Amino acid sequence: MKHKTIILDRDGVINEDSVGYIKSLAEWVPIPGSLQAIADLSKSGFSVFVITNQSGIGRGYYSLQAMQQIHDHMLQEVDKLGGAIQGIYFCPHHPDLQCECRKPNTGMFLQLAKEHSVDLQQSFYVGDKLTDLQAGDGVNAQSILVKTGNGEDTLRHLASDHFYLVYSCLSAFAKDVIDGKL
């Protein structure tokens, strides 16, 4: 069965990441080509979802409304390009709460699978951090590492016994998927 669901991390994959968190729409800067890549995947018949840790809410750095503004804008920008993001799942909790939804835990993935009848084992999960790869592995999705965001650092620190497909950016991954190379 061909992979038809693509799940993306947000910060570092779709938009530039920041050690100071992305706290407002003014700080949200798409990585060049990422929104077009999402639109192209969508127009090619793939269902695209976003799963993202947003602990800045739990830490008090920004509000749920500020994050929703970012997400609404991202959805609108992809829509303008003729594509769609089917859903966005986020964990707002502080890491100390040890919730089931915060990656590398799999709660958001299981919720997405249940709500959208997605076979996670037939899905790609694209991320830039080890926790992304671990979460994708936890649901037997095909985990993909992109070198944007924290990806270069993650790649340097991966154990030699871990093998992941690595792409320079979301656009390069999307091209291979659309061209049927994956």
Model description:
It is a single chain. With 182 residues, the chain is α/β, with parallel strands linked by helices. It is 36% helix and 16% strand. It has seven helices and six strands, in the order βαβααβαβαβαβα. The chain has a six-stranded parallel beta sheet with strand order 3-2-1-4-5-6. β5, α6 (151-157) and β6 form a beta-alpha-beta unit. It is globular and about 45 Å long. It starts with a strand and ends with a helix. The mean pLDDT is 95.
The unreliable regions are: none
Please give the count of helices. 7
As a whole number of angstroms, the C-alpha radius of gyration is 15 Å
Q: What is the overall shape? A: globular
Proportion of beta-strand residues: 15-25%
By helix and strand content, what is the structural category? Answer: alpha/beta
Tell how many strands the DSSP assignment holds: 6
Overall pLDDT metric: 95
Order of helices and strands: EHEHHEHEHEHEH
Helix percent reads: 25-40%
Brief summary:
The protein is an alpha/beta fold. It contains 7 helices and 6 strands, in the order βαβααβαβαβαβα. The longest helix is centred in the middle third of the chain and has 17 residues, at 64-80.
Q: What are the key terms here?
A:
alpha/beta, 6-stranded parallel sheet
Secondary structure layout plus pairing:
Blueprint: E1 5-8, H1 34-43, E2 47-53, H2 55-58, H3 64-80, E3 87-91, H4 107-116, E4 123-127, H5 130-138, E5 142-146, H6 151-157, E6 165-167, H7 170-178
